[in-house]
Records
---
Amino acid sequence: MMGADPQSAPIVHLGDVGSTNDEAMARLRATASPLWVIADRQVAGRGRRGRPWVSEPGNLYASFAFSPTWSETAFGLLPLAAAVALADAVDSLGVSARVKWPNDVLVNGLKVSGILIESEWVGTVRRVVVGFGVNVTHHPTAAPSAHLAEFQPNIDVAMMQGALLPAFADVLEALGRPDGVESVRQRWLDRAAGIGQPIDVRLEAETRSGVFEGLDADGHLILRHADDTSERIAAGDVFLRAAS
């Protein structure tokens, strides 16, 4: 059981914050109650591996903090589940979205969001924050990316928030069911970009290349090499390549 419903949890709406993830985790530590923190702007936003995340007003910066009681396998699927929820939410606003492993959401092949999951243990209690940064009305120009209003000019932050909360509640409820891991895994695969295509996977110290074959039962990426061997990768950054 999850023990928290993102659709009914209280929302703390702030102006400027350092990081919505940091603010949400601090409030979860203080109250032990699930909640959302949503900000107009982050002055110290970050992505995976500590990368800075541009966080000016006009986009959605939202973090959900809670204490799940899932199995470790279910928790391992949380990055995929978050991506599925956001892609579902974007679709509901009339923009077709796909996912790139593990949790990028793409529109027309361009990244429109960042998802950062952080957790800590206190005794037997796991505290988790899932942070969403969604490009709604603008996007960074330093990297290939896009924003949703390019595709549907009427989309604004309130609409994106209204679509995300029920979509995220749906996938978290799914993860808490006995068949949840497989159902979320399949929902991710149904939206996946790059399956059967050549990719590069950037790890901490090297880059591996091969064909993206899919996911194993734990949500790890299956990469097939030129010698027909395959490996399972638990963490890395995927870059899609055109087939030669």
---
Amino acid sequence: MNVLLVEDDPTIVEALSRLLDAEGLRVMACARQAEAVELAGRESFAIALLDVTLPEGSGFGVCAALRAISPEMPIIFLTASDDEYSTVAGLEAGAVDYIAKPFRPRELTSRIRAALRRSAGAAPVLRAGDVELDPTRATCTKAGSDVVLSAMEYRLLLVLMQAHGRLVTREGLRDAIWDSAGEYVEDNTLNVYVRRLREKIEDVPSDPRVLLTVRGLGYKMADAKERTS
């Protein structure tokens, strides 16, 4: 199974090549946008890992080209841990995930495997009240209107939606956000993310009816389920 790696740091290329080779994945690497597009045009890839900043072109340009060549191929962006703008832009460009540098090997391979599993069949659209989340497209809507989420807000909502109405503890949410951001998230920070998310998906944020608090334990989405039609 081939992996397209677009990265200009030879140290990262070498480390990822060794790591993924041990997982049975064959890495084919290049450092420039034009090279990546040419390679994708003549080889078949199961997944692409794209650095945002390249010596010539950008990861966003590569992403757009790959979407035209292979619309269903999962794309993961490699970003600096504090580069939230690039993360959001990457998701909006069609990436299915992002991985912060420096990488944690076990997390990275797990996220790649998850993306490959999802690509085998489109992920179902998740719904809670009038809020819908489409993991395949990384989009969110409320009553049919687009909701723009930050990377952290998206990750938080995805974890809650995928629980299908079950309780998600505060610790579980902190761990999920920590995995995506590469840094520890404190309780107060989690409170901020929950408040910001409610401001975007609730009719009355001070009286939430979708993202519910289970006092002393955590949070859950009201009547969360997969959309069936």
